[in-house]
Amino acid sequence: MSHSPKNPPIVGILALCRIGFERECSSELERWFGERGADGYVKFEKLSGQVIWFGQSKQFPKTSELIFARQVIKLISKTPVYFDNKDRISPILSALEGQTYSAIYLDNPDTNDGNSMADLFHRLQKPLLSAAGKANILNRDAKQRAHLVFIDGTAAWLGVSEAGETLKWPMGIPRLKMLQDAPGRSTLKLAEAFAYFMDKEEQAEWLREGLTAVDLGASPGGWTYQLVKHGLQVIAVDNGTLNERLLDSGQVEHVKADGFVYRPPRPVHWLVCDLPEKPVRVTQLIADWLAAGDAQRAIFQLKMAVKDRLDELEYCREIIEETLKPSGKKIERLQFRHLYHDREEVTGFLVVK
Ligand SMILES: C[S@@+](CC[C@H](N)C(=O)[O-])C[C@H]1O[C@@H](n2cnc3c(N)ncnc32)[C@H](O)[C@@H]1O
Q: Ligand 1 pocket: which of 238, 261, 299, 345 to mutate (most atoms <8 Å of CB)?
C-alpha cells in the first residue's frame, strides 16, 4: 500500500508588505494570532518589506483576512535555504524532497534589492521546474504549492500555501495596465479595489450599464473614468475641473459642491470617495450615506496620516457599525485593505443591505 507523504509542519508565517509598513504588518499578525491564543513572536527589519511570525498555531490567516500583508506564506523551516551562485537548484530540491507540490513560486519582497531578482528568477525558473519534475516533487494534483521567498541571491525562505490562502497575483501585486486616456494615475487605485474586493461574477453584476454612482472628490476624474469605462452613470462632485473627454461621454454630470454636504436626488448604487480628510470624518460620511439608503456600496480612501493606523482603522470600523445599527441596514461586507497602489492610504469597502 502506498502512503501519501504528510504535509510538513508549519513553523510560522512570512508576510510581504509595502516597504515602510513592517510595524503595522507585524502588529496585525500579533493581534491575529493573539486573538486565537497562539504562542509566537514577530521578527522584522525596518524597510525590508517583510515580517515573520514564528510560533505554533492551529490556524493561519489567509492574505485576504489581513489589511497590511500583501501575501502570506506558511513557513516550513525556521531557517532559510542557503545556496551559492553555482548551484541553487540542488539545495532547493533537497529542502523540498519528500513532498509533492502543485507548483513552485519564486517571490521576493518589494524592495529595490528584491526587485533586482527578476533576472535571477528568469534564469532559475525553467531549470528548477524541470529538475523538480524529474525528482517527482511536482504533481498537478498536490494540494500545496511551494513558495521560495528570496532574501537575496544566496538565500530564500521556504513556505507553502493552498489555493485561496494567497492572492492570485505574484507577491500580491496586480499588474494593471495604465490606460492612455485615463486622467491621472490614481485611476489604478479604484481599478485595483474593484479587482481585489470583488470576484469576476460580482464585478459583472455590480459594474455595468444601468447602474449609478456618485464620486466625491472626483477631479481630475481618474475614479470617474473607471466607473464610466464599466458603463455606469456618474455624478462627479468636486469644485475642481473634470477631464473634458469624461464630460463629453454623456455618462457624467459634474456637480460643483462640497462633498461633505452633497446628497443625490435619488439613491445610487455606488458611492466612491477620495476626499483628502481625516479617516474618521470620511468614515462617518460613508456610514451616514449608507445608513440613509443613499447608496448600497462604497469604496473609500482613508488617508492614514495618523500614528497608530491599526487602532484608527478599528475605530473606523466601530463608527460604521454604530451608525448602521439604528438604521436597520445589515453590513454584508466591511473590509479595509492597504492596496498595492495605496501609499499612506488604506482603501475601505462597505456593502449594506
Ligand atoms: C486626491 S484628489 C481626487 C482624485 C480623483 N479620485 C481622481 O482619481 O482623479 C482629491 C480631490 O478632492 C477634492 N476635494 C477636497 N475637498 C473637497 C470637498 N470638501 N468637497 C469636494 N471635493 C473636495 C479636491 O478638489 C481634489 O480634486
A: 238
- Per-residue pLDDT at 106: 94
Homologous superfamily (CATH) for 187-352 = Vaccinia Virus protein VP39 (3.40.50.150)
Task: Give residue 5's pLDDT band: very low, low, confident or very high (50, 70, 90).
Answer: low
- The annotation status of 222 as a binding-site residue, yes or no, is yes
**Residues 126, 128, 130, 136, CA torsion sign:** negative
Q: What is the pLDDT of residues 31-86, one digit of tens each?
A: 999 999 999 999 999 999 999 999 999 999 999 999 999 999 999 999 999 998 88
Is the domain 12-172 a CATH 1.10.150.120 member? no
- Please give the distance of CA 296 from its chain centroid, rounded to a whole number: 22
Burial of 39 (0-12, 13-18, 19+ CB in 10 A): exposed
| First-to-final CA distance of the chain | 54
184 lines ligand 1 (CB under 6 A): yes
Residues of the chain with CATH 3.40.50.150: 187-352
238 is in an annotated binding site: yes
pLDDT at res. 8: 81
Ligand 1 and 171: CB distance under 6 A: no
As a whole number of angstroms, the distance between CA 224 and CA 304 comes to: 23
Q: Is 110 marked as a binding-site residue?
A: no
Q: Where in the chain is the domain with CATH 3.30.2300.20?
A: 12-172
What ipTM goes with this model? 0.99
